[in-house]
Amino acid sequence: MIDSPCNNICTKDPNSELCKGCGRTQEEIANWLFYNDKQKKQVLTSIKNRNKNF
Which among 4, 13, 15, 37 is least buried, having the fewest CB atoms inside 10 angstroms? Predict the structure, then answer.
């Protein structure tokens, strides 16, 4: 089981539309519970790559 990256700072950045707390898209947040472990790992990798661009 892979834990959610949510850290309870749930504010959407108006420019990127990503959550300022966890860096996920609205779609990724909404679907987290339905993703399998492979998909969750892909999201976590995407978050790391997004953070490199800020």
Answer: 15
